[in-house]
UniProtKB/TrEMBL annotation:
Cross-referenced InterPro entries: NAD(P)-bd_dom, NAD(P)-bd_dom_sf, NmrA-type_oxidoreductase
Protein's recorded name: NAD(P)H-binding protein
A Pfam family matched in the record: NAD_binding_10
Segments forming domain NAD(P)-binding: 14-154
Residue ranges the record marks as coiled coil: none
Length: 288
């Protein structure tokens, strides 16, 4: 009997992944790992076991992962007391120590590139985690997620409300897809007998002009340079640190770092992605 475990189940990604996994394997073979156990119990499907596990507490992670064969490590969020890299390293070490046989990890496109980690810490964190997994010798799948369409909810809904449509990615193409589709792919890979070691998960690459074309309203479109973009975000009231982070991602897009064409997503899902126009409508209708 194979035991499956997932971290981050109280988040949107992990919540979708555990529900999909429960349709692929017996719910009683699934362990949901969460810091907030009561919240997780209210979310997971019936039959799924919930165990306490905190990215920042290695002892809880070892206890939570004991008896687990296959693990989905959902990328964490750094806290004031611990970096993302350290949090995820704690999970990798605990998994190796208790004998987890396979780990799937939600990463970022082409972390093996020497250029990408140098551009932004977020990417460096993912590369460090992949390296740590490789060092353990555990079987693995790196799920290198491109860009969630939901990341553009503020832009899309703002345009519909009459705000300017401002971006700094130029003609850079982005592999947008819905977060729930990335989560479904992760669950399906976890349940596979022989998954690939790397999945560069991406939707059909499109520009911000392409995105604007499927939003059902007329609005002002303004393509600006990265510095102007960052300044505009800060003038709108956004915290400087957040504006800087978003500007760095726009630079990645502008440089073509998120332009990828392959069949990895369809191979993981076993079916096509949601039509792009329908996906945008789903974002518009959501409360996120």
């Amino acid at each position: 009997m194979t035991k499956y475990a997932l971290t981050g189940v109280t988040g949107h990604f992990g919540g979708v992944a555990v529900r999909v996994l429960a349709q692929l394997v017996a719910p009683t073979d699934i362990i949901a790992i969460a810091r907030n156990v009561e919240k997780a119990k209210a979310i997971v499907p019936a039959g799924v076991e919930v165990r306490a596990g905190d990215y920042e507490n290695p002892a809880t992670l070892r206890q939570a992962l004991t008896g687990v064969d296959r693990l989905l490590l959902v990328s964490s969020h750094p806290s004031p007391t611990m970096t993302r890299e350290r949090q995820q390293l704690n999970v990798v070490i605990a998994a190796h120590d208790v004998g987890v046989k396979f780990i799937a990890y939600t990463s970022f496109p082409h972390t093996e590139s020497a250029v990408r980690p140098a551009k932004i810490q977020f990417v460096a964190d993912h590369r460090a985690t992949e390296d740590a997994i490789l060092a353990t010798g555990m079987a693995h799948s790196f799920l290198r997620n491109n860009w969630y369409l939901e990341n553009e909810a503020r832009l899309i809904k703002g345009a519909l409300a009459g705000d300017p449509y401002i971006y700094a990615a130029g003609e850079g193409r982005i592999g947008w897809a819905l977060e729930r589709e990335y989560a479904e792919a992760a669950a399906r890979v976890l349940a596979m007998e022989e998954p690939r070691e790397v999945y560069e998960l991406t939707g059909q690459p499109r520009t911000y002009q392409d995105l604007a074309a499927v939003i059902p309203e007329d609005f002002e479109i303004d393509s600006v340079d990265v510095d102007t973009y960052q300044q505009t975000l800060q003038e709108s009231g956004m915290l400087p640190a957040v504006a800087t982070q978003l500007a760095l991602f726009q630079q990645l897009m502008r440089d073509g770092d998120l332009s990828e064409e392959n069949d990895d997503f369809q191979a993981a899902l076993g079916h096509p992605l949601t039509d792009f126009g329908a996906a945008v409508q789903e974002v518009i209708a959501s409360d996120r």
